[in-house]
Amino acid sequence: MSQASDRIARRFEATRQQGRAALIPYIAAGDPSPSATVPIMHALVAAGADIIELGVPFSDPMADGPVVQRAAERAIAQGVGLKDVLRMVAEFRASDPDTPVVLMGYANPIERMGQAAFAQAARQAGVDGVLSVDYPPEEIDEFARLLDENGIAPIFLLAPTSTEARIQALARIARGYVYYVSLKGVTGAGHLDTEHVAARLADIRRHIKVPLGVGFGIRDAQTAQRIGAVADAVVIGSKLIETMEQALRDVPPAQQAETAAQAASDWLKTIRQALQPVADRPGVPA
After folding, report:
1. How does pLDDT run across 16-36, given as a tens digit for each residue?
2. Which tens digits make up the pLDDT trace of 57-108?
3. Cβ proximity of 58 and 109 under 8 Å
């Protein structure tokens, strides 16, 4: 197993040993500026991030709510594309050999680069996983094979509406972790029903043995704590991006990278503090 493919497994083993859910923040690469992305990634790790989901900007982000869409638009306006994102990962990896990085995005930029070329470039950059919203598991065998050959985990979404057949199909090829979308709709929307999430995760665990992360709708420490008591990981994005947006109002460009990194770090620390060990969480020995 390559170092890249092993990083996610090692990180989940560490959080299991600590008796807590992993913390997975999402940011859009290139937002608020290309030069700010790597400093923000390092700030998130210092604040307690276990894995970083790095969004690849795309012009038609169908699963993303308005906050993440704005972030992607800001990055695209500054010319950030997939090759730039891979360069950012390589820069981050040069000084952080341990924190897993998962690229989250859409199939179109990967198809433009070519699946094989992308898988090789992602491995060279130090990418650990790829979550592409619009690669269905029923049609991804070749791409999943290419990722596997390069030590990269193919990561998939499940939704409240996912059928048992889809869960079983996904169980065959999922690596790293599975991202359970806790709400119907787009990112950053709605109100979470923790009991429903817990019941759904129990159903999914009958088929899927890799860790289960939960995202969409987690906007504060209290919600993160409740989800962290039933999930293997808490994924949080829209509120983090909103926090940086608010901090950057009236901030001159020369100070934006430092300001965004500080705001992201300060806020994420409150989430990390809420994810204290929970002895009775599924998969954690009492």
Report:
1. 999 999 999 999 999 999 999
2. 988 766 677 888 899 999 999 999 999 999 999 999 999 999 999 999 999 9
3. yes
Annotated active-site residue in 31, 50, 64, 232: 64
Active-site residue, 139 included: no
**Could you tell me whether strands 52-55 and 22-28 are parallel, antiparallel, or unpaired per DSSP bridges?**
parallel
Annotated active-site residue 138? The verdict is no
Domains along the chain with CATH numbers: 3-274 (3.20.20.70)
Cβ(47)–Cβ(54) below 8 Å: no
Read off the pLDDT of residues 242-252 as tens digits, 9 standing for 90 and up: 999 999 999 99
Q: Are 121 and 86 in contact, with CB atoms under 8 Å apart?
A: yes
Q: Which of 53, 60, 84, 96 is catalytic?
A: 53
Q: Could you tell me the pTM of the whole model? A: 0.91
